[in-house]
């Protein structure tokens, strides 16, 4: 299918209860590395994403040790992309170093102190060559900074127009709810979006712990690692790491992923799941990657799936998942659930609180979220 045909199929969802619309698939440039032709690669990927109708682009201050924001901003400039036509987010917490390579950064350039939030945001804007970002995230919770200080700093960015919205990424639910409450009490701009890990192999936190954020507080959700860092692509179905896997170049990242999905306690179980998913995908006429992505799209609590394309061919393959998502049915859902066997049981049903019609009607085929 041509890009123009898939662009016609592109779905745009509200970011929770905001008026902001984002494409169901977004581009995140975490895995673009500064070695080689990083800028040329970014330019070509951004251009192809725009052809497909992707309007959401995600980056962070620490991606590629602080270089990724510059690649993305320069790509928009060279491609002459109108600022109002794209939604751009960045994240603060880890400074400009790599979280997978153990280093000791200066204490003032990490965390979510007022100093780092404001200085980090302004630095990100300079690299992006933008006057504002649409969304700025606190990327992980900083337990050492006072929560009021964190909320006031992000609210200040919104009030000053440096960001239009702010959100959190992988914060404990109690901290997020307390931040919402605190912002309302202090008349501050409250967070409105969660950036969470979510995939067929990682569901508990998104579907259970974060459920009140989506149902009660109307949060949007941008999804990272919907392919479980590549585990769901079919390349790891034998339980081994291919020679050309990016894990081989980054031992820290390899440990982070494999300890989650291929540790001694779950490897045999997950290998069986992967092979069964591969067989189902083949039966449906799609790749395992496309099945995994369509499954994640079928959760209406997901606003946008962040995909880390490193090659143009990956865009072509991955976005064909939209075609399968458009055909999603109760039967496909049930067959996936029979293979996975890992659907969390929510502790409480908040459906009566859903203020957004998109959410009240979100129980796709009576499943995620219920």
From TrEMBL:
Keyword Transmembrane helix carried by entry: no
Keywords attached to this entry: NADP, Oxidoreductase
Alphabetized SUPFAM superfamilies for the sequence: NAD(P)-linked oxidoreductase
Keyword NADP found: yes
UniProt xrefs under InterPro entries: K_chnl_volt-dep_bsu_KCNAB-rel (IPR005399), NAD(P)_OxRdtase_dom_sf (IPR036812), NADP_OxRdtase_dom (IPR023210)
Domain of life: Eukaryota
Family designation: Belongs to the shaker potassium channel beta subunit family.
PANTHER family: HYPERKINETIC, ISOFORM M
Protein name per the record: Aldo keto reductase family protein
Native source species: Stylonychia lemnae
């Amino acid at each position: 299918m041509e890009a123009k045909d898939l662009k016609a199929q592109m779905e745009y969802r509200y970011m929770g209860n905001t008026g902001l619309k984002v494409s169901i698939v977004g581009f995140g440039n975490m895995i673009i590395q500064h070695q080689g032709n990083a800028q040329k690669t970014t330019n070509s990927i951004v251009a192809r994403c725009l052809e497909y109708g992707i309007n959401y682009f995600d980056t962070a201050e620490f991606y590629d040790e602080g270089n990724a924001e510059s690649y993305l901003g320069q790509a928009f400039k060279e491609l002459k992309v109108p600022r109002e036509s794209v939604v751009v987010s960045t994240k603060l917490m880890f400074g400009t170093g790599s979280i997978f390579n153990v280093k000791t950064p200066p204490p003032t350039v990490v965390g979510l102190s007022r100093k780092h939030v404001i200085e980090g945001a302004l630095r990100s804007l300079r690299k992006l060559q933008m006057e504002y970002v649409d969304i700025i995230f606190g990327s992980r919770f900083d337990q050492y900074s006072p929560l009021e200080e964190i909320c006031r700093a992000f609210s200040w960015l919104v009030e000053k127009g440096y960001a239009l919205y702010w959100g959190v990424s992988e914060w404990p639910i109690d901290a997020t709810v307390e931040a919402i409450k605190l912002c309302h009490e202090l008349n501050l701009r409250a967070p409105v979006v969660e950036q969470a890990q979510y995939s067929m192999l990682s569901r508990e936190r998104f579907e259970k712990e974060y459920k009140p954020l989506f149902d009660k507080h109307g949060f949007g959700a941008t999804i990272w690692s919907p392919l479980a860092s590549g585990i769901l692509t079919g390349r790891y179905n034998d339980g081994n790491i291919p020679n050309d896997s990016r894990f081989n170049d980054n031992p820290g990242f390899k440990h982070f992923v494999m300890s989650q999905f291929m540790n001694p306690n779950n490897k045999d179980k997950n290998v069986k799941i992967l092979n069964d998913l591969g067989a189902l995908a083949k039966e449906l006429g799609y790749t395992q990657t496309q099945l995994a992505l369509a499954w994640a799209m079928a959760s209406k609590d997901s606003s946008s799936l962040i995909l880390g394309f490193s090659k143009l061919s990956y865009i072509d393959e991955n976005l064909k998942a939209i075609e399968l998502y458009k055909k999603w049915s109760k039967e496909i859902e049930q067959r996936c659930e029979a293979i996975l066997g890992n659907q969390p049981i929510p502790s409480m049903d908040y459906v009566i609180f859903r203020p957004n019609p998109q959410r009240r009607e979100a129980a796709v085929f009576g499943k995620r979220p219920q």
